[in-house]
Write a structure and sequence with these properties.
42% helix, alpha/beta
Length: 298
């Protein structure tokens, strides 16, 4: 198939080489005169959109065209997502993503879907290293109903008792959850966390070993956290890591559009949906373990 650019070049060749008129050159090249004379017009609004799209992509380099379209719509741009995709590709802003390896689907355990805030949390650990090659860990805690990131605890070591203290600190401003979905890591199976859950009436839901899909929400959050925060920053110290990660957490809750929530940030979705914290259980809490019988905590 001959492209319009090739036909224009052919018309120019016949006109210059044989000294023909434009009409005669078009007849020889089999081209329409309107196509040869056409010149694309620059749209001022289109140029403004290109500039704004470039600025947003530079500020948030791991956002794809769908999430950038959500941000543009929030700013008041009346633009079709197909147009954003066309400009996104033309500007070379495409984000490279790792292709997932498809495996055979296994039988999955039905996941409990919470209907209220603070009804079911999920948490998991991640690890990374500082600029001086010192490793550190993060404890990520997520509310599965509102998709809010409740806390990201950063330190070089996080034991079971530290996890219990972080959960208590979160519950002071919200309420204790009914359930917490965790994996079978040593911090989550420790006596310290088991004692904390027993004293506060919280059920620890352990997923099956080797089945991270049963805690899919926190795994998806971990991927976004590493892609949009950890991979884009080079932390010089633990204090620097805590400060930058906390800024990203606040941006995730209050600004970043969430695809599963209709493009709304988790905090805005929770406020507009009227999700209230889970009511405290009417059953009395079990008596605390005597001090002499309590296990030694780290």
């Amino acid at each position: 198939m001959v492209t319009p650019t090739a036909r224009r070049e052919a018309v120019t060749f016949f006109r210059d080489l044989f000294e023909r008129s434009e009409r005669s050159a078009c007849d020889l090249a089999g081209a329409c005169r309107a196509m040869v004379r056409y010149r694309p017009k620059r749209n001022a609004k289109n140029e403004q959109l290109r500039t704004r799209l470039t600025e947003l992509a530079a500020k948030r380099p791991r956002f794809g065209y769908r999430r950038l379209h959500m941000v543009l719509s929030r700013e008041g741009w009346q633009v079709n997502i197909k147009r954003v995709l066309r400009l996104y590709r033309a500007l070379g802003l495409t984000v490279r993503s790792k292709k997932r390896k498809r495996v055979a689907q296994a039988n999955r355990v039905p996941r409990l879907i919470p209907e209220q805030a603070d009804e079911q949390w999920s948490m998991d650990f991640m690890s990374d290293s500082l600029a001086n090659s010192r490793s550190y860990r993060t404890l990520n805690i997520l509310d599965e109903a509102t998709r809010e990131c409740l806390a990201i605890e950063v330190d070089s070591s996080l034991c079971g008792s530290r996890v219990a203290r972080v959960l208590t600190r979160i519950a002071q401003s919200r309420s204790f959850p009914s359930r917490i979905v965790v994996d079978n890591g040593p911090e989550f199976t420790s006596k310290a966390l088991d004692t904390w859950a027993y004293e506060h009436g919280v059920e620890l839901v352990f997923i099956r070993p080797g089945k991270p899909i049963e805690n899919g929400l926190i795994e998806s959050f971990n991927g976004r956290f590493r892609d949009e925060c950890l991979n884009l920053h080079w932390f010089t110290s633990l204090q620097d890591a805590r400060r930058q990660i906390e800024l990203w957490r606040l941006d995730y809750n209050q600004v970043r559009p969430h695809g599963a929530l209709g493009g709304l940030p988790p905090a805005v979705f929770a406020r507009e949906a009227g999700l209230q914290p889970a009511a405290p259980t009417s059953a009395p809490l079990p008596p605390p373990v005597p001090v002499t019988e309590r296990p030694v905590l780290c």
